[in-house]
Amino acid sequence: MKKKETNNKKDLYIGIGSNLNNPINQVEKAIKSISQLDNFNDMKISSFYESPPMGPSNQNNYINCAAMFKSGESPEDILLLLKDIESSMGRKKSSVRWSERIIDLDIIIYGDLIYQSDLLTIPHINAYERAFVLLPLIDINPDIYIPKQGYAKDLIKDCLYNYIKKIERK
Q1: Is residue 70 packed enough to be buried (19+ CB in 10 Å), middle (13-18) or exposed (0-12)?
Q2: Angle between helices 23-35 and 75-88 (to 10 degrees)
Q3: CB distance 68 to 44 below 8 Å
Q4: Which pTM does this prediction carry?
Q5: Residue that wins the pLDDT comparison between 38 and 17
Q6: How many H-runs (helices) and E-runs (strands) does the chain carry?
Q7: pLDDT (tens digit, 9 = 90+) per residue, 91-140?
Q8: Cα-Cα-Cα-Cα dihedral sign, residues 165, 45, 27, 114
Q9: What distance separates the 2 farthest-apart alpha carbons in the chain?
Q10: Distance between CA atoms of 141 and 149, rounded to whole angstroms?
């Protein structure tokens, strides 16, 4: 007799960004890598956006997007998978906060989960103040709600980092 599977998959929103080595290409490569992971299904991708760096201004602008998947993995397992992808793409640790990077993968929202550990906070603690996070989320789901923060469409009106430009991809 075949065991009945329970469907415990939640909407997982991942923020993706890069500002090094052809950032559009790096973001697309990360999307492809994530989409090939087991137990990540029903992918939706936002438009791509360009925004200035939040940190040191002597770096290139960032290209950002969001990806949504259905997943049933634990938050810590998802984090490890994303860190493996970052590492395989050449991301190096930097002692400079908000320094340039070849790829940055962040868990933004995972269903209605509120989660905190030494390694991870879900929802992403600063999502509400970043248009480069909020607009891609809105692209995927115009009525998206970020637990403990509010509706993205309301948060975007007053967010701190709000210079952002939608870019056309070939």
Answers
A1: middle
A2: 130
A3: yes
A4: 0.91
A5: 17
A6: 4, 10
A7: 777 666 666 788 999 999 999 999 999 999 999 999 999 999 999 999 99
A8: positive
A9: 62
A10: 16
